[in-house]
């Protein structure tokens, strides 16, 4: 695994593709993994690599507090996408699983009675399976939304955040938490359906209020 040389166009392209559906290098909050990769860059990614540039600007806002971010910094090569060889091996394992015949070998000669019994059991299994209610995976997420300064209208900021309406998104309680120097951040709860709403979607929509919002972080993430 790894991004390769992050000072080269190839390495930056790998980083950009890796961050296409992720907010951070590891997990749902900024960590020492982000610090390690950030420090390996010689300059900000170009505007064409917008996923990497979004992540770079976000992590840059933590430079004063990067030493206190969670996690243990590992060698740079430990971060990034999995090797093609690993993916191939995994794909081969899945193919092997697909080859398993749960009902016996087709090469064996079966009597008409045995075939009928097998068909009945398959039909019973499918009928039983179809009656099971589909489980909807949900998560409870606590978001930290940071303003630019102490002059930001926090009531307006919260109102803007709550205007974001999506199928599978439900806003909950909120409060203002002091950060320092008179600045307060908005801490707001939401419940999402995992198949419909992602953290990256929320971050893009919230940070789109760029006159009010400096950044958005996940303070807590729990499956329901």
Automatic annotation (TrEMBL):
The keyword Metal-binding is annotated on this UniProt entry: no
Annotated ranges, domain GST C-terminal: 1-84
Compositional bias ranges of the Acidic residues kind: 92-104
Entry keyword set: Elongation factor, Protein biosynthesis
Segments of this protein annotated with the region Disordered: 78-104
GO CC annotation, single: cytosol
Record GO terms (molecular function): guanyl-nucleotide exchange factor activity; translation elongation factor activity
Family: Belongs to the EF-1-beta/EF-1-delta family.
Protein name, UniProt field: Elongation factor 1-beta
Organism: Acipenser oxyrinchus oxyrinchus
Gene coding for it: EEF1B2
């Amino acid at each position: 695994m790894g991004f390769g040389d992050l000072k080269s166009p190839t390495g930056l392209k790998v980083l950009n593709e890796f961050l296409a559906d992720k907010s951070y290098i590891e997990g749902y909050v900024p960590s020492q993994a982000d610090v390690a990769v950030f420090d390996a860059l010689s300059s900000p990614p170009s505007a064409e690599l917008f996923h990497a540039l979004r992540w770079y600007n976000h992590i840059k806002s933590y430079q004063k507090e990067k030493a206190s971010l969670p996690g243990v910094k590992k060698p740079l090569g430990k971060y990034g996408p999995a090797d093609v060889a690993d993916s191939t091996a995994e794909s081969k394992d899945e193919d092997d699983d697909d080859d398993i015949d749960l009902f016996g070998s087709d090469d064996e000669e079966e009597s008409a009675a045995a075939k009928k019994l097998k068909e009945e059991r398959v039909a019973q299994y499918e009928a039983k399976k179809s009656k099971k209610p589909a489980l909807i995976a949900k998560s409870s997420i606590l978001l930290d939304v940071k303003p630019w300064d102490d002059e930001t209208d926090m009531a307006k900021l919260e109102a803007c955040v709550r205007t974001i309406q999506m199928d599978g998104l439900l806003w909950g309680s909120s409060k203002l938490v002091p950060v320092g120097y008179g600045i307060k951040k908005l801490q707001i709860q939401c419940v999402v359906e995992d198949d419909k709403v992602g953290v990256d979607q929320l971050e893009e929509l919230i940070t789109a209020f760029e006159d009010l919002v400096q950044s958005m972080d996940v303070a807590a993430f729990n499956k329901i």
